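Changelog-linked ticket: 2-O-methyl-1,6-di-O-phosphono-D-mannitol example.
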Amino acid sequence: MDLTELNRIATAMVAPGKGILAADESSGTIKKRFDAIGVESTESNRRDYREMLFRSREAMSQYISGVILYDETIWQDAKDGTPLVKLIESSGAIPGIKVDEGTQGLPMCPGELVTVGLDKLAERLKKYYERGARFAKWRAVIDIGSGIPSMTAISVNAHALARYAALCQAAQIVPIVEPEVLMDGDHDIDRCYEVTQRVLNKTFQELRVQRVALEGMVLKPNMAISGKKCAKQAPVEEVAEKTIRLLKACVPAAVPGIAFLSGGQSDEEATAHLNAMHKLGPLPWGLTFSYGRALQAAPQKAWSGKAENVAAGQRAFSHRARMNGLASKGEWQSSLEKKAA
Ligand code: 5MM
């Protein structure tokens, strides 16, 4: 393992002004997104959509450090025959790959999930590296509800995340470690804080036990935030202050970077939260975005599956990428959104 090179890539993934495009929707998820805009989820439509994003010159060269791909996409070619991976590389961004294989119900733990995909992972990583992937992603899902999460769910998911991360580093691939505490419930921000703290502490404990080099990884956490159905929604400043307090308590400074998931926040909320956190610096790690929905909802709507809308889709994507790029330096203002509208 070349840790200097892993650290160089991890640092580039969280470079100030840039963040990660999470375009690794599995087939079921992308179908849901396409259903919402009335587009059939065929292989060629999925290719055309992602090609549109990766050919957005402004976004990709200035604000996107890396792209997380789904297995289908990493093997796909653009309409003119250029591998999509090459499009990403030529824009200056780093290709990455989602390697988990989704979730399964956790035995004896009703309502809880464990992420799977460790079998044959070493062989798969080798092929992905040859294709150009320099980082990977594995997402664990932790739900908050009555009596959950159990320590069992937190523990098995942390163990799997660390197994995955160690295999990635052995294959010279930077692992994005994503333990997502969902924001779907009616819990308040303090309950989210408390659960996320347990999850992060256990995750870092397992990473240490399994000898993962913290200097060669990126953490992709949720923010400390109110559940979507909570009657009292914490304001932007509180989300920023509690998230930074939580991360400082749980994430060692040896980790080069943290790149948030958006988790169902609106586009602008996700940007405003990241921006507000940067007002609380200096921070011990790079801090940026690795958004899926908060970067793609606008371009999906603008595109709506029509070739004549490609330029509009790219404009919408570039706008969100620029807003989040500014937020990753604490330089975003809501007036910039209004101007664009
Ligand atoms: C883009 O969505 C990713 C893949 O999800 P599925 O495996 O469920 O299809 C997802 O892991 C994503 O990278 C993270 O949840 C962050 O995305 P959001 O939309 O929460 O920013």
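Closing comment: Example verified and attached. The mean pLDDT is 98. Strands lie at 19-22, 64-69, 94-98, 103-105, 113-115, 135-142, 174-181, 218-219, 257-260, 286-291.
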